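Before relying on records like the one below, remember that each one covers exactly one chain. Contacts with other chains, cofactors or solvent are not represented anywhere in the record.
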Amino acid sequence: MALLTRFLPAERAAPAEVRRQAQRLSEVPLLCTLLDGIPDHVFVLNARRQIVFANRSARERLSTERDGLLGARPGEALGCANAVREMGGCGTSEFCTACGIGLAMLRVERGLPAEEDARIPGVPGREDAEVQAVVTPFSVGSERFVLLALRDRSEESRRLALERVFFHDLLNTAGGLLHLADLFPIAPDADLPELSSVLSRLSQRLVDEIVAQRDLAAVERGEYHAEAEAVDARAALESAAEVYRHHRAGRDRSIKVSDGPTAALSLDPRLLGRVLGNLLKNALEAERPGAEVRLGCRLEPGRVCLWVANASAMPRPVQLQVFQRSFSTKGPGRGLGTYGAKLITERYLGGELEFDSGPQGTEFRVLLPR
């Protein structure tokens, strides 16, 4: 029975055929020697996208056995969470339609080399990765193969994304401070108390944004020291709502904290504020002026659900990549919002972050142990 696929063909070559192809390549010692000398991960794939050769770098980092990667597909070897979503494996899920490696493989089928950036969401216990994939078709005799070289860009991408987000938010707030400072010489005395209040609020936001970037960098490195305190769930929602009622993202939009139960939580209140703030900011930016964004709390068996909802639906391609580092619909320099929220929730708050999006709107849910 043929395996179902939502993207690339699911069929695989039999194990005996994979071993024969691997033996064929081993008979070209110069090729294997050259590929072993490359520090990046390099694979040779057959026509079914299965690994028939992995260079020394890939073998040492991805498998304890010399032939342990034979027959696997790239996403399976790399521990991609999307590679186990369908029975057909790597390349066959709907999520794979947004994968740079899969898109490059489509172009190679026309006999052309391809280069794409790809984000690899890790299975539990394995970090997400960002790679530059270079795919080149070649032949040995009459048999066709594909050379796949993967350069790890995770650290570079993380550093650049943090810098861009930091400077983006920092400049926004600094611009507000500068504008306000320009008003002081011409403001009537009656306006000075109000201007002073706004100046104080903008200054506090500037400090908060610097601290937020510092904390997120520490979270990604696994160096953040969480400090658990007693936190009231409803108070946390009200605090996030109050911050964004005065934020640029909340301009001409309303924020409502829905009536409902509350719960006592034991966690780092600053990190919970980061998560709720990121989700609320994204929801506000997704809506048109005049729209309403809602927050609330639900009690579920054994856990507390804090939710953020807005009326607009996310396009399906966005849903498939929403938790990937550096992905954003807002252009360069953005994209750590939902990724950062998920990272903090799972690594430091001991919970889960999930969402639904469709004609009824979009709802993100922070699920925390009671």
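The two ends are 46 Å apart (CA to CA).
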